[in-house]
Structure formats: structure tokens, C-alpha cells
Design a protein that fits this description.
CATH class of the domain at 200-322: Mainly Beta
Strand content: 25-35%
Low-confidence stretches: 428-449, 473-522, 531-537, 648-671, 673-682, 684-704
Distance between the termini: 136 Å
Oligomer: single chain
Shape: elongated
Helix content: 25-40%
Largest sheet: 8 strands, mixed
């Protein structure tokens, strides 16, 4: 017969809810591990008193009773597994696995029996239903009546909140059956009553969840948080884990208490109690017990008089009362030397602590993820910047946690930690819209060699070089597009010509022109849109040298065909996995050979990049000079056109001037005037519009 039996998808009944997990039976005892919380119930073989096999809603169930009165129920077995379990119990536990069926008559009159932590309502010899007394939150009595109230179960859609029993009067003198019933219930019920003095009290502790300052009163069986608005009573049986975590500033400490079931305030559930301490705070503590009681109860873990840091005293007392180990960060050290990583979860910033067996995030909202419930982790590029990345965790239940805005310097440390813990890495690389070939990330799931980190470094170098080039080009373009001197000259020339026309006029029209000056003609310049130029600069130049490959990629390209021939019909995904395994198993000497080839390729790339950058700058300077020359020619041509237009407008707007002056026909024009006019015309054609137009005095003397 086998020494162990294992059953998957077994459900443990705890406080009305069915928690799935794994059940293992061995010579030493029975072990059940909850899949949701990770909590482990260990029942020693010497403690087992009775085993019962019965038919339940989920098939068949196993009920185990211990010698100290505790009851454990496990459902989800198949009927065919009874013989195997029965033989195992006989061989290793020396117990008969009894078969007992529940009574289904539907009667509501029977007998109540109290056995350990269980209340059983029986009809004859068959039980109708059973109530674990630990589920009872309150017990009240009336005339011939007892009312039991139960803790609300958040995991169940429908919760049983109250049961009433009618207790008939008896003829026995001096014994009240109602009170006797209530005392039996209260002796085993989970009713928190603050009777007696507290063992010790911690005043005005800063609590992050629930937020506020609370006095913590330590009682033998529960913890009492007393605040200005709310009070909470936390039984030690609901404490799952204790964590003591140093803050990143090295001046504060977090003390985290994991609770299941959580404490409640209205519709809010607090699964974690988080206290924040300063390392400089000290306290002297005296327990409200004599030395003999302290020694007997805590067996040297606590003394009557203690002194030290406040966080040490609180954690030491909680560890002794709860009887659970305190989890602290392991060997992980981030880029800054701290044992945590600054990141954001949902809308709040906090700290992520990589532990020896999981991750914990504090503080809003607190999250604890065990390694055994993680399906895979993923390193993803940040959506807004390349200076940070996202760390994603997906559990086996399908829940996804994304810790974002992690500094790029933390990547190597976190990747090495995850790789050392042998967690499955599903590196999807960059976000959507940035397509990357699978070859570059083929081994990132298998080996410590990190193609993603190398790629990110290379892209950063190229981005800096492009940024320097674009800043040089954009500066020249800005100087080109804004020339205040040229624009002022254009405006001055135009208004000089208008002023000469208006000042030389002598009738009423000229008066009106003086009162209402002529409207300024708008100068429209042809400007090229800058956005398109910037976009073209940002685009990738096809003539630019290609980035060098890493040592792994060079080896993969050389070995790809050999792997295909050795494994005909292999898929692309399997090919990458196989390549990662071969690279990981390769000797150091062979890897150094490919590293040398990668280094040579990198030097060639840098040399080609320098030549390319020098050539591209020279081409850009030549292009800018040609652009300036064309622009200057265009401006000079435009000024010549403006002069002709202004002369025409002045002649048409001042008819009075032409009528008042003496009319001269061709035969009366002197040769000197005609020759001077022709020479001026030729000069203006040669020089363009560079010289300013003649002033009003010059035009007047010329007419004379």
C-alpha cells in the first residue's frame, strides 16, 4: 500500500464557505493546503479520534474529529475512493472509517448534542445538520428559546445569519435548560468579550489601513483596535501572516498583518492591517502578568519587562501571541541598495517587496502574491516613456496585477531575482504598435541573457544621436524662417511709396487721404510647414547603417538551419525555445567567440555611424545654403514686383497731381531727363529691389 494519498480539487468547509485546495494523507497525518490563501492545516496522526464518510452535496465527504474537539470537513470525493481511504485509515491511523448518512425526513423536532466544537441536531441516531460553534457570533436567550447569530460570510452569495431553538421546560429543580444550552454554546463560540485587563497597551499607533491613529490593546485571544471613530476586535485565529518591511528611506518600518476573514467597516473590507513606525521611537513595556505566568505561557519568548524600538516590541508581542513567523525581505537588493522597488499599482504609488516566497505591495491597496499561485510574469515597455517599464503578474486563477513606472535601472536586478526563483517569464516585450521580431527575444524566457535590455540600451544611444542631429537642423531652420530685418525693410519701402504719393497731392482728395491713411497691404510669404519637416526628420533613414546584432542573435542566425535540420517540422516557437536551451548549455569559450564577433560588429557600426552622421550633416548644410539662395532670389523678385505695383497705384490715386503739373510731350522732354530715367531703370533692373525708392523731394525735383 502506498505511504501517501493525494487528492486535488478537494473542498474544505470553513465558516459556511467551500475553499478548494489539495489534500494529502501520509503516515504522519493529514495536510490540506488552501489554494486561495495558501493556509495549511496540519492534523497529526496521533490527534485523530474519528473518521466519518458520508454523502454530501458535492458527492461524498470526509469528516475528521480530533481528540481536542476540533472538526475538519473535506468534500469532493468520488464514491469509488471510499475503499482506498478506508484501507489507508486502517493501516496507518488504526481507525475505522464509519459510514453515516444524514437524516432527510424533514422533521424539526429532535435532540441537540454538543461534541467538541460541534453542535449536532439529531433525529434518532442520524444527524440532520451540524453547526460549528466557532461560526457563532452571538447567543441570546428568551423564554424557552435560544437564538444563535452567525458571522457574515463575504465569499458566499447567501449567508445563514440566525437559527432559533425552542427548548421545552423540564421538571428538574435548580437547572434552567435554556441557560444550560446557552452556556454550552458560549463556551465554544467565537464571541469576543473584553473581559479582564489587557496584557499590554500600545498608545496612538499610526495605522495606514484602516487609516488613522489607534490604541492597540493586546488580550490573550484577540487584538482590540480602539480609535476615535471606530473599534475593531481581531481574533488571533484570523491572522494568516505577519510581515516586517523596511521603508525605502531606511528611517521607517512597516508592520503588516494579513487577515482572513478581513475586518469590516460598512461595505469596506480590510484584508491587511498596516502599521507604520519610526525607527527612532523607543518604548519600555511591562506586561500585565506576573513572571511565572509569562514564563509558563510564552516559554521565554517574552519577559515581564522589555524595552527597545517600538516596532520591535509590537512585532515581538504579536509573534508570541499569534504563534506565527514574521516574514522579512530576503536577499533582494535594488539599484539604490534598498530591499524594495518604487512603483505604481492602479492609481497610487507604493513599494513592491520581492520576498523569498512571494511579492507584497504596500500600501494602497495592499497586495500579497505567493510564488505558487503565479502563472507567469511579464516585463513590458512603459506606455509613456522609455525611462521606465511595467512588471505584470498573472495568477493561475486569471487575475492580473500590473506594477508600472518602475525605473529602468531596476530591470536587471528584478529580472535576475525572478529568474533565480524559476518563475515562468512570458516577455511580450513592447506594447502594441511597436512590432518587434521574435528572433530578438527568443531566449529571454529561458536564459539570463536579456535581449530586451540590450535592445533598450541600443535604442537609447541611437535616440540620443538623432536628437542631437535634429537639434542642430532645427536651429538653422529657425534662423531661416524668422528674419525681422527683411520684413521691416519690406514694410518701410511700401509705406515710403504711399507717403510720396499722398504728400505730393494738393486737392481735397489729399486731405481725405491724410485723415484716413491708406490700408497696409498684407505681405504673404510662402512658408513651408514645419511639422512635415520635423516628421520627416523623425522618420528612419533607409541609408543609415543597420544596428549591430548581439552575440546571441549572431549565433542564432548561423545555427538556425542546423536546428531545423536536426528537428524537422519544428514550429517557430519551439525553435526559439530549443535555441535558448542550446545557448544556455553552450560552454563559456564558445560564447566568448560570439561575443568577440558581436564586439567587432559594434565597432564597425560605430565607425559607419560616424561617417554617416558627418555626411548627413554636410548634405544638410549644402541643402540649407541652396534654400537660402533661392529664398533670397525670390524675395528680390518680389520686391521688384511690389515697386511696379506701388508706382501704378500712386499714379492712379493722384490724378490731381498729373493735372496741376505742366504737361510735357515727348518732343519737349530734354535729353538729360530721358537719359537719366533710362539709366535709373537699368540700375533698378540690375539691382532688383535692394535700394529704397526715391523720396518725395527727389520726385518733386525730377518733375521740375
Amino acid at each position: 500500500m502506498a505511504d501517501t494519498l493525494e487528492f486535488n480539487e478537494i473542498y474544505q468547509e470553513v465558516k459556511g464557505s467551500m475553499n478548494d485546495g489539495r489534500l494529502r494523507l501520509s503516515r504522519q497525518g493529514v495536510i490540506f493546503k488552501n489554494s486561495k490563501t495558501g493556509k495549511v492545516d496540519n492534523i497529526q496522526a496521533s490527534e485523530l479520534a474519528e473518521g466519518v464518510w458520508r454523502r454530501v452535496a458535492l458527492g461524498h465527504g470526509l469528516k475528521l474529529l480530533t481528540k481536542n474537539g476540533h472538526v475538519y470537513k473535506y468534500d469532493g470525493f468520488r464514491e469509488s475512493e471510499f475503499d482506498k481511504l478506508s484501507d489507508f485509515f486502517k493501516a496507518h491511523y488504526c481507525l475505522e472509517l464509519a459510514e453515516k448518512d444524514l437524516c432527510v425526513k424533514g422533521w424539526n423536532w429532535g435532540t441537540v448534542r454538543f461534541g467538541g466544537q460541534l453542535l449536532s441536531f439529531d433525529i434518532g441516531e442520524q444527524p440532520v445538520f451540524e453547526i460549528p460553534l466557532s461560526n457563532v457570533s452571538q447567543c441570546t436567550t428568551g423564554k424557552n428559546e435560544v437564538t444563535l447569530e452567525f458571522h457574515q460570510n463575504d465569499d458566499a452569495e447567501v449567508s445563514l445569519m440566525e437559527v432559533r431553538f425552542y427548548v421545552p421546560p423540564t421538571q428538574e429543580d435548580g437547572v434552567d435548560p435554556v441557560e444550560a444550552f446557552a452556556q454550552n454554546v458560549l463556551s465554544k463560540a467565537d464571541v469576543i468579550q473584553a473581559t479582564g485587563d489587557a496584557i499590554c497597551i500600545f498608545r496612538e499607533l499610526q495605522c495606514l489601513t484602516p487609516r488613522g491613529r489607534y490604541d492597540i490593546r493586546i488580550y490573550p485571544t484577540f487584538l482590540h483596535l480602539h480609535g476615535k471613530t471606530f473599534d475593531y476586535k481581531i481574533p488571533y485565529t484570523t491572522v494568516l501572516r505577519l510581515f516586517l518591511l523596511p521603508h525605502k528611506d531606511q528611517r521607517q518600518m512597516f508592520f503588516v498583518i494579513s487577515l482572513d476573514p478581513p475586518i469590516k467597516q460598512g461595505q469596506t473590507r480590510y484584508h491587511f492591517l498596516i502599521l507604520l513606525f519610526s525607527k527612532d521611537e523607543d518604548i519600555s513595556l511591562t506586561l500585565n502578568m506576573n513572571e511565572e505566568e509569562v514564563e509558563k505561557r510564552f516559554e521565554g519568548r517574552l519577559t515581564k519587562n522589555m524595552s527597545g524600538s517600538l516596532y520591535e516590541m509590537v512585532s515581538r508581542v504579536m509573534k508570541a501571541l499569534v504563534n506565527r513567523k514574521i516574514t522579512v525581505p530576503g536577499n533582494f537588493q535594488g539599484h539604490s541598495g534598498a530591499q524594495c522597488i518604487t512603483c505604481s499599482y492602479k492609481a497610487s504609488s507604493g513599494l513592491l517587496y520581492p520576498l523569498e516566497r512571494g511579492f507584497i505591495y504596500v500600501h494602497k491597496p495592499p497586495v500579497h502574491i505567493r510564488f505558487d499561485e503565479i502563472s507567469f510574469v511579464n516585463f513590458a515597455r512603459g506606455t509613456t516613456t522609455t525611462r521606465s517599464f511595467d512588471f505584470e503578474i498573472e495568477t493561475k486563477q486569471g487575475t492580473q496585477y500590473t506594477f508600472s513606472s518602475i525605473e529602468r535601472e531596476e530591470y536587471g536586478k528584478l529580472f535576475d531575482f525572478v529568474n533565480a526563483k524559476k518563475l515562468n517569464i512570458k516577455n511580450r516585450g513592447l506594447k502594441e504598435g511597436m512590432k518587434q521580431s521574435y528572433d530578438e527575444y527568443a531566449d529571454s524566457d529561458e536564459d539570463q541573457h536579456d535581449a530586451y535590455l540590450e535592445r533598450m540600451k541600443e535604442e537609447g544611444k541611437i535616440r540620443e544621436e538623432n536628437a542631437n542631429d535634429s537639434s542642430d537642423g532645427s536651429g538653422e531652420e529657425t534662423d531661416e524662417s524668422f528674419n525681422p530685418g527683411e520684413e521691416d525693410d519690406d514694410v518701410a519701402e511700401e509705406f515710403d511709396s504711399n507717403a510720396s504719393a499722398s504728400s505730393s497731392s494738393g486737392d481735397g482728395d489729399s486731405d481725405r487721404d491724410d485723415k484716413k491713411p491708406a490700408k497696409k497691404a498684407k505681405i504673404v510669404k510662402d512658408r513651408k510647414p514645419r511639422k512635415k519637416q520635423q516628421e520627416s526628420k523623425k522618420g528612419k533613414d533607409p541609408n543609415a547603417p543597420k544596428r549591430p546584432m548581439s552575440a546571441y542573435m549572431l549565433w542564432l542566425n548561423a545555427s538556425r538551419e542546423k536546428i531545423k535540420s536536426d528537428h524537422p517540422g519544428i514550429s517557430i516557437t519551439d525553435l526559439f525555445k530549443k535555441a535558448g536551451e542550446l545557448w544556455k548549455a553552450m560552454s563559456k569559450e564558445k560564447k566568448e567567440e560570439w561575443d568577440r564577433k558581436a564586439e567587432d560588429a559594434r565597432r564597425d557600426y560605430e565607425k559607419a555611424m560616424k561617417e554617416y552622421s558627418v555626411g548627413s550633416k554636410a548634405d544638410s548644410h549644402r541643402g540649407e545654403r541652396s534654400k537660402k539662395k533661392k529664398k533670397k532670389e525670390k524675395q528680390m523678385k518680389g520686391k521688384g514686383d511690389k515697386k511696379g505695383a506701388t508706382s501704378k497705384s500712386s499714379s492712379s490715386k493722384s490724378p490731381a497731381k498729373s493735372m496741376s503739373d505742366s504737361f510735357k510731350s515727348k518732343e519737349f522732354v530734354s535729353s538729360d531727363e530721358s537719359s537719366s530715367a533710362e539709366s535709373k531703370k537699368e540700375d533698378s533692373e540690375e539691382e532688383g529691389a535692394a535700394s529704397p525708392p526715391p523720396s518725395s523731394e527727389d520726385s518733386a525735383s525730377g518733375s521740375d
